[in-house]
Amino acid sequence: MDRHIKAPISKEDVASLRAGDYVYITGTIYTARDAAHKRMDETLKRGESLPIDLENNIIYYMGPSPAREGRPIGSAGPTTASRMDKYAPTLLDLGLKGMIGKGKRSDAVKEAIVRNGAVYFAAVGGAGALLSKSILKSEVIAYDDLGTEAIRRLEVENFPVIVVIDKEGNNLYETAIQQFKND
Fold it and tell me: Are 119 and 14 spatial neighbours (Cβ–Cβ below 8 Å)?
């Protein structure tokens, strides 16, 4: 099913999404990869505030290439989500409602998704140039010293993703394999 949602994402939208839905996101999302997640984890362990409010927000696991002239960002493809698995449950417990990446997630992340009524989306790997066309604005807002791994605020329009794990824990990667075996 094709769905159009706004970001930050509402609890109602999260509740209505099902594994396998094609979703187009419009609004504000954030980028953060390995180094930014590690730094956020260290910040939390020191009892300090994060540089972004996670409540109802979506983090895209992406580090862009340099922008071409006249464009806000370069190629913007997803990175492997499992590299953020050791940090994701804590961020979900703090109000994060969505993550965009590629690949499988750990059982701990799946449990945190269900516990917090969140969602994991996949973006198509290898399609970074195409995905960048949905990004209208990109601004580094934290950890500038990390270069491409800095936290960015993106304004997106009809950013295409697929629901992989919904708030009920349904996992497209598992159901698709089972369906393929049955066909």
Answer: yes
| pLDDT tens digits, one per residue of 52-64 | 999 999 999 998 8
Residue 5 and residue 180: Cα distance in Å, rounded? 29
Token digits of residue 83: 């590299």
State how far the Cα of 130 lies from the Cα of 43, in Å rounded to an integer. 34
Strand ranges for the chain from DSSP E: 2-7, 22-31, 58-60, 98-101, 119-122, 135-142, 151-165
The length of the chain in residues reads 183
| Chain centroid, CA 58 distance in Å | 5
Summarize pLDDT for 80-111 with one digit per residue, the tens.
999 999 999 999 999 999 999 999 999 999 99
Token pair 């209208």: residue? 136
- What's the distance, CA 95 to chain centroid? 13
- Beta strands at 151-165 and 22-31: parallel, antiparallel or unpaired: antiparallel
